[in-house]
Amino acid sequence: MTYITDSPAATEALGQALGERLTPGTVLAYRGGLGVGKTAFTRGLARGLGFRESVTSPTYTIVNEYLGGRLPLFHFDMYRLTSSEDLWDIGWEDYLDRGGVCAVEWSERVADALEGALWVTIERLDENRRRITLEGGEEFADLSL
């Protein structure tokens, strides 16, 4: 399913609509370059999971954990990893076992470890508009904004 958003707020709203429907153990694999809106989407996702705290990019920490919502949210940034072996070394299996939602930026670097993920591709159309494509999760095919 493909959506077009026309502002960061609309990108967050789409993330929120998705977050409201996620179930324990969901893995979201983000694809998209720098500055396309992955963190904005994740802010909405967190809101949909019931979080009110600030959501930031995990660029320098590899993973940010958000606890206290309907489900835990683990927001990963794989930019600094070189392979899926690095992902396993940081405890990926432990995160999967915790029954939360794993949102993975730069998922292309560890794609072989993300079997069964919901793929979220974000493309910049112009300064404000984004094309957001969800693949692999038919149960999320009809998000209403």
Can you give keywords for this protein?
25% strand, 7 strands, globular, seven-stranded mixed sheet, single chain, 145 residues, alpha/beta
Would you write up a description of this structure?
It contains 4 helices and 7 strands. α1 crosses α2 (38-48). The longest helix has 12 residues, at 8-19. Helix content is 24%, strand content 25%. A hairpin with a 5-residue loop joins β6 and β7. By secondary structure, it is α/β, with parallel strands linked by helices. A 7-stranded mixed beta sheet has the order 1-7-6-2-5-4-3.
What does the largest sheet look like? 7 strands, mixed
The chain-level mean pLDDT equals 87
Number of strands: 7
Helix and strand composition category: alpha/beta
Order of helices and strands: EHEHEEHHEEE
Q: Determine the strand fraction and express it as a percent band.
A: 15-25%
Specify Rg, calculated over alpha carbons: 14 Å
Shape: globular
* Strand arrangement in the largest pleated sheet: 1-7-6-2-5-4-3
Q: Low-confidence parts lasting 5 or more residues at pLDDT below 50?
A: none
Number of DSSP helical runs: 4
How many angstroms does the end-to-end distance come to?
Answer: 14 Å
Q: Roughly what percent helix? A: 10-25%
